[in-house]
Amino acid sequence: MRFLLRLVILLLVLAAAGWAFAFSGFYNVAATEPHWKPVQKFLMFGMDQSVEHHAKGIVAPDNLQDTVVIHKGFEHFKEMCVQCHGAPGVERSEMAKGLNPRAPKLIWAAKEDGPAELFWITKNGVKMSGMPGFGPTHDDEEIWAIVAFMKQLPNLDSAGYAALQEKWCDKGEMDGMDIQCHKMMMGMDCEKMKMDCKRKHMDCERQSDGTSHHPGPPQAIK
Fold it and tell me: Is the model's pLDDT at 185 over the cut of 70?
């Protein structure tokens, strides 16, 4: 009985000490200040165990090697992932460099984690890490496509990723534009570059046919 009483008292003291520490504001929560090593290791261990537990029972579809699925995953990857995680030959964005914890290079995550774990993380996100959950905005088929492309990352170097950019970055919509516009899209945001290049191309056409000698206001792209 005395043992239980001492245990309860010890737990109450520890809880009070933890609350007092939090109340003091001493612990620095700034993103520019790394976690203490024991705290970081504890959080990473807890995350790994949580992902492994919740990903149990998730069965990957058998089409993750399908080129069409991988292509679809690439489209989502360049829109949703590359800004924070980077890609072979593509650095993280300036915003991503200020994240703490820093978003991991997915080439390593794709090596270490199975499809089920990658799917669960992509769909649900990770609390207080900057990793959003795509489940509210993407269906399971789209998320599996992202996983399919991520599993290809260990097989890609910078030249391989650049080749995919050139091959798959909505190349059909670039017909009639100069080669410089197309090259500028390599490793950059395709949607923004398409708009810039289309505006540039339309301005050149106006000047050549005499309808305008000055770039007009941006027009809606249909």
Answer: no
The mean pLDDT value for 44-66 works out to 95
45-164: what fold?
Answer: Cytochrome Bc1 Complex; Chain D, domain 2 (1.10.760)
* Domain regions of the chain by residue span: 45-164, 173-209
Helix axes 115-124, 140-150, angle to 10 degrees: 130
Higher pLDDT, 182 or 69: 69
Residue 148 near residue 65 (C-beta atoms within 8 A): yes
3-state secondary structure of 78: helix
Instruction: List the alpha helices (DSSP H) in the chain.
Output: 2-24, 37-54, 67-80, 82-85, 106-112, 115-124, 140-150, 158-168, 179-184, 190-209
Q: Where are the beta strands (DSSP E) in the chain?
A: none
Confidence bin at 194 (pLDDT 50/70/90)? low
